[in-house]
Design goal:
alpha+beta; 4-stranded antiparallel beta sheet; elongated; DNA-binding; 279 residues
DNA sequence: AAGGGTGTTGAAAG
DNA sequence: GCTTTCAACACCCT
């Protein structure tokens, strides 16, 4: 499950492998993945264009061609593989980009949750969904006053709040758990109860956790492997996520798993004590 | 062997 | 308008 650090690894890896290549044609095997274009217009528009750069915002990838941009979201299990065109098409390869040099980029997604759309170049930030996204966790735009403003009149649990992409772009389930451990906050804390100091620790946590994860190429939980088949090394540094019944590195309490907003949530009951309700 | 868990997003419902 | 629930889908585990 690629989160932002994994997507960044994919971006960097793909950049070095396919920027400069020209598409000859595209095979769409699962039309529902393409929106709102028909597979035909999607394929016709992008064919014969040269890839100039790959950009990332939150968990979205932007493939910038000469006149169009391909927006790709990997959702749960999307992966890209670069292979010779002569190799057989696999079951879960839903979109295949055939380059003019004999290589092909295969989009592989067992659960078919991933999405692709083509927009005129430069317009990616005006498409619905992307236009509303908040600043990235490592951005200077993620400030105390910005977050404090968002928390004012809301009783949402801080876990749910941080998963909301319109608040911060790119935090997923794994990293929110890690950020909350860093900030020593119980995941159920209502956000209107957060102090300025809490917000400062959340922002510090975002920056240190995410930048460290990007450094290590992301986490690999379950099936996720990046386009080069490289395994992210951040998993070994996870403090709480996926560590139910294991001991906290800081205090040796037993890590607990609960559900918050329907999402599996891991935390240390001692390091992340629930705040006493004020009156 | 049926059913629940897995995670992201957007649409629908409250 | 804000928040919660669910659907999209496939695979793994019990």
């Amino acid at each position: 499950m690629p989160e932002m650090p994994e997507v960044e690894t994919v971006r960097a890896t793909l950049s070095s492998m396919i920027v400069g290549k020209t598409i000859d044609h595209i095979l769409v095997r699962y039309p529902k993945m393409i929106q709102p274009d028909t597979p035909e217009s999607f394929s016709n528009s992008l064919s014969h264009q040269t890839l100039e750069s790959i950009e990332r915002y939150g968990k979205y990838l932007f493939f910038h061609f000469q006149t169009d941009t391909l927006i790709s979201h990997l959702r749960m299990e999307g992966k890209y593989f670069l292979r010779p065109q002569s190799e057989p098409v696999l079951n879960h390869e839903h979109v295949i980009f055939y380059f003019t040099d004999g290589l092909s980029l295969r989009y592989h997604d067992t659960r078919k949750f991933g999405t692709m759309q083509r927009v005129p170049r430069g317009t990616q930030f005006s498409v619905p969904g992307i236009i509303k996204m908040g600043p990235e966790p490592i951005s200077n735009d993620l400030t105390v006053s910005y977050l404090l403003g968002k928390t004012k009149n809301s009783f949402r649990p801080v876990k749910t709040f941080l998963l909301d992409q319109t608040v911060v772009s790119g935090l997923g389930n794994i990293y929110v758990d890690e950020v909350l451990f860093y900030a020593k906050l119980h995941p159920l804390t209502p956000v209107n109860q957060l102090t300025k100091n809490d917000i400062v620790r959340i922002i510090d946590g975002c920056k240190s956790v995410i930048s460290r994860a990007i450094e290590l190429g992301g986490s690999t939980i379950r099936s996720y492997v990046s386009s080069l088949g490289v395994t992210g090394r951040f998993q070994t540094e996870l403090a709480v996520h996926m560590r139910k019944d294991e001991l906290c590195n800081k205090c040796e309490s037993t890590i607990i798993k609960i559900k918050v907003g329907g999402r599996g949530t891991y935390y240390c009951p001692l390091c992340q004590k629930e705040k006493r309700k004020s009156r």
